[in-house]
Fold aminocyclopropanecarboxylate oxidase.
Amino acid sequence: METFPVVNMEKLNGEERGATMEIIKDACENWGFFELVNHGISHELLDTVERLTKEHYRKCLEQKFKEMVASKGLEEAQSEINDADWESTFFLRHLPTSNVSEVPDLDDEYRKIMKEFAAQLEKLAEYLLDLLCENLGLEKGYLKKAFCGSKGPNFGTKVANYPPCPKPELFKGLRAHTDAGGLILLFQDDKVGGLQLYKDDKWVDVPPMNHSIVINLGDQLEVITNGKYKSVLHRVIAQTDGNRMSIASFYNPGDDAVIYPAPELLEKEKETNQVYPKFVFNDYMKLYAGLKFQAKEPRFEAMKAVETTANFGPIATA
């Protein structure tokens, strides 16, 4: 059985760089996911983020979640629920402008730590995009520029908790979907599992590992690579025991960024027909909002029908 791809980033600086880049390449082409260890974000910072996130849930969100469950009568459900997720969430925005100071109910220490964590993740995301460029044979900086738009990328964090569920056979923690954006960096609970990806016609567990960062690719990277890399269906299964923490940060294109297959890749692969569409990222997000839990292929087809007035000139990488 294939093992879930784990990338030791320290090995990128030595004799094993080639083999490590090959693990990343295979993961992008065949898994859509991989897990990073020795990624440069300190264990102390990760431990603090986890502690404060779990404290915040207990203090501010746990009771609200229980009240929501009671008000909707979810615990009395007798058949599978397909229009709700068993999760408690809030969102932070970092780029192009931050809202971390305005989000209610966060104490000062938590705000400070989440800003610091986001800054570290932003650097890691941009480093990873350049590693992907190297594997694809694209000029360094190409993917970062492709995401830029006029105001730079969008970068935000979904902080989620998946509380114990009395009827896990009827609920998903999070229903199956692919992610709309670019590169997703997940700091997940190292004790309570539940995240799964769909590969080779079966659901595969994404293993919880202490102090790791899980990476997955969004729809935009599938478009830019013209399908060489794939966004992959994934879900969170509900559990009867334990409260699973999930902090997913999304490094996405800017709202007005024009997304399309990299011409250099089309030339290299002698592609005469461009398989994927050109579109403005925000137009895709508007479509995705209503179709998140449906297949991605009809979304791509719908975008082919959308005419944009944007300038589709080459992306400058200087």
